[in-house]
Amino acid sequence: MYKKISTILFIALAYSCGSDDSSEYVPIDPYANITATFGSTINTESLANYANQTIPNYITKDNTGGNAITDKGATLGRVLFYDKNLSSNNTISCASCHQQANAFSDTTIASNGVNGTTGRHSMRLINTRFANEAKFFWDERAINLETQTTMPIKDHGEMGFSGTNGDEPFSGLITKLSTIGYYKELFQFVYGSEEITENKIQLALAQFIRSIQSFDSKYDIGRAQVANDGQPFPNFTAQENQGKNLFLSPPVFDATSNRTAGGLGCAGCHAAPEFDINPNTGNNGIIGTINGTGIDITNTRAPSLRDLVKLDGTTNGPMMHTGVITTLQAAIGHYGTINLAPGNTNLDPRLRPNGFGQQLHLTAPEVNAVIAFLRTLSGTNVYTDPKWANPFPN
Questions:
Q1: pTM value?
Q2: Where are its TM segments located (predicted)?
């Protein structure tokens, strides 16, 4: 009398008279802990779409590698991303430093951890999948996203399973998660086994993070209507099209006037339409540290320029690894006048033409035009889509 459902087990009940009537069953939910913990937020019979999201045909970069996004894997990754149980004192999750409301970044310069604060500003996690650069962290110390996902967990200051300074090792986290009912069910659901390993955690977290995409911006609406980025976008204002041209065009040094003309050359490091960072980029001239002591010339990675700000122009937290820049105007101003600081042997060659720091001599209208263009790179859905939101009840 019951329709067969793949995820429900049935136990036959015998009548008290001793007869065996297999038409009477009591359904048993193998994912009762998932249901009890997350309610309707996670439905194992109807998962959110992570694996088959629409990607514009002009987006060609993809660093997924051998860890293809699945609805099951990304669902587990979402739970792990938001679960404070992944920290040693149950107070910090990945989402504590990478907040959906701020393009998966933080509004503070240094994010709070279990034993202090982060050494660099928390990088935005928008469109991390769509980049040639596969390495992660500002200094590229993680060879890929999978490796990166558990490094903050193993950091004494951030999430506290370092195995040093009195911390439990990562194996302590494995033991901890193995006692939690919804993880037993989730790992069984995703991998066919309750066994929890670091590799499985890495795969799931990376799938969730790579699923976070933003392609509903004014830029994307315009780009879909033209053959290439160099053409005027019909939905752009004249100012926005001017800013786009300045962004795409390289600067040209005029020896007669001893000035730089042309564009800003931003696309040399942040190529459209992904606006990711070129893998061979040096540092950008910002070599300070958050604590203000010493210099750091190893920071050569950057997030995509998409969703630098929200649609209303407010920032998604400070920019750069030190959080020293807080407005688009200040960011453009930095690249307009590059100071070649003593000791910076790793400044990107594109920022030191003729051996000197770049001097663009931008006019106020040009700066405003580039700002207008950068604002077109911001979408809306990424800030509110429930599939990337906290699955735990508030």
A1: 0.92
A2: none
